[in-house]
């Protein structure tokens, strides 16, 4: 990179990083967008990929394709692991565990959040979250494999446990997953099995609150509850999931009382989020205050206190109770890009102001919720508005067109076109797989190479 142009390094290709890089696409700066997946993921539709409605290509797009015509934007595959704020340098790890470094003048942290198991990381083995494409494909595999295994078992408790699905967390993602699983059981798979009746599948939705969708207005949450119950979802509210194992879950009532055990061979986790490791590393290195989930406190312009050259956007922002939603990340990305542009022009930065564009949740075919200020929609009207909003922000015209066609086809018939899954090869040599796992001996990694 030339020394005459400001170097902007963006960590994360989600909504915040994507919109920030887009807005800087024609600015007099050199932008490097570093992402551990090399693609932008439309995370709000992950559950539709997990349940077979949409394919990976419908909800993701390679970052290189996205910025192919922006000559000042370089996209790199790597996971940020270390910050040297004195030298203004970030060390990143490649998938093969080697490392390289990137220098910056402005650093934008848009790394997002990861699934939180509330200090019980062992739960992840039996209860995948819903944050990545790998999560969605893992859930799809478990969902449809459960019905296949049940088909081979005689009637009894073991078969029943394979036909029981437990979802921890009754926020938008949990509600959407629960509704979709029941729709798969009652509609998609209705006439495909001979030994079992897929409609007998139980879907249990657990949450510590007293109602589902706590971020929505009470009347909309009540309508969501009625829709879920009509679909056959069993609500278990006022409880915490305190153990997850191969055979099922254990829940503890908040108000006291004995633990309750549920046999369920498929458990899905949507109950909480926490900062990714690099965000916590940033907070430690910069001595920046952060909350229990790892959200970093920032100034009014979204910069880290004492470090005007470092911005934090999206879910990681710990200020003014900003919501962890796509709209906040998009607006934050645009705001930071504006701050950078204003700096190039010698103008002062402006304070970030979030504009709430509402909340939406999809429950089942023809049923969704939308809340935008005083406007509240449910049922078919909510479903239609939900679809239009999501299509409008999908990355790439091709994605929008293909998603519309897929949804129309799904509405017309019971089948889901993208429910194929693979069980994997147990004989594959793990040493030949590219992985983000940590090396036991950091000193054995090859020397980092700097990108100037």
UniProtKB/TrEMBL annotation:
SUPFAM superfamilies: FAD/NAD(P)-binding domain. The keyword Amino-acid biosynthesis does not apply. Keywords: FAD, Flavoprotein, Oxidoreductase. Residues 6-333 form the FAD/NAD(P)-binding domain. The keyword Oxidoreductase applies. Its cofactor is FAD. InterPro entries: FAD/NAD-bd_sf, FAD/NAD-binding_dom, NADH-Q_oxidoreductase. Belongs to the NADH dehydrogenase family. This is NADH dehydrogenase. It comes from Mycolicibacterium cyprinidarum.
């Amino acid at each position: 990179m030339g020394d005459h142009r400001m170097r902007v390094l963006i960590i994360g290709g989600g909504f915040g990083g994507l919109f920030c890089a887009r807005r800087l696409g024609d600015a007099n700066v050199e932008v490097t967008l570093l992402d551990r997946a090399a693609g932008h993921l439309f995370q709000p539709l992950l559950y539709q990929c997990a349940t077979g409605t949409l394919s990976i290509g419908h909800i993701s797009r390679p970052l290189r394709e996205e910025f192919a015509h922006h000559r000042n934007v370089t996209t790199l595959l790597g996971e940020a692991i270390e910050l040297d704020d004195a030298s203004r340098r970030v060390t990143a790890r490649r998938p093969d565990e080697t490392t390289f470094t990137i220098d910056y003048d402005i650093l934008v942290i848009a790394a997002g959040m990861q699934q939180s198991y509330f200090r019980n990381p062992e739960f992840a083995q039996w209860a995948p979250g819903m944050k990545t494409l790998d999560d969605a494909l893992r859930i799809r595999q478990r969902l449809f494999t459960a019905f296949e295994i049940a088909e081979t078992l005689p009637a009894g408790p073991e078969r029943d446990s394979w036909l029981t699905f437990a979802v921890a967390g009754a926020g938008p993602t949990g509600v959407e997953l629960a509704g979709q699983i029941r729709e798969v059981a009652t509609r998609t798979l209705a006439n495909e099995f001979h030994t079992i009746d897929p409609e007998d599948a139980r879907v249990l939705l657990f949450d510590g609150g007293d109602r589902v969708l706590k971020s929505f207005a009470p009347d909309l949450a009540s309508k969501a509850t009625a829709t879920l119950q009509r679909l056959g979802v069993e609500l278990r509210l006022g409880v915490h999931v305190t153990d997850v194992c191969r055979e099922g879950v254990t829940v503890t009532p908040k108000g006291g009382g004995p633990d309750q055990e549920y046999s369920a061979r498929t458990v899905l986790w949507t109950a909480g989020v926490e900062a990714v490791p690099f965000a916590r590393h940033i907070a430690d290195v910069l001595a920046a205050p952060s909350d229990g989930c790892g959200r970093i406190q920032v100034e009014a312009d979204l910069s880290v206190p004492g470090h005007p050259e470092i911005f934090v956007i999206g879910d990681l922002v710990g200020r003014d109770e900003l919501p962890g939603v796509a709209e906040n990340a998009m607006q934050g990305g645009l705001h930071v890009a504006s701050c950078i542009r204003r700096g190039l022009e010698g103008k002062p930065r402006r304070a970030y102001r979030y504009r709430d564009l509402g909340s939406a949740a999809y429950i089942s075919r023809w049923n969704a919720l939308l809340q935008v200020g005083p406007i509240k929609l449910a049922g078919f009207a909510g479903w239609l508005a939900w679809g239009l909003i999501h299509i409008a922000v999908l990355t790439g015209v091709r994605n929008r067109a293909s998603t519309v066609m897929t949804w129309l086809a799904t509405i017309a018939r019971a089948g889901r076109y993208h429910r194929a899954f693979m069980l994997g090869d147990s004989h594959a040599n793990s040493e030949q797989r590219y992985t983000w796992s940590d090396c036991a001996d950091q000193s054995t990694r090859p020397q980092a190479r700097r990108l100037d």
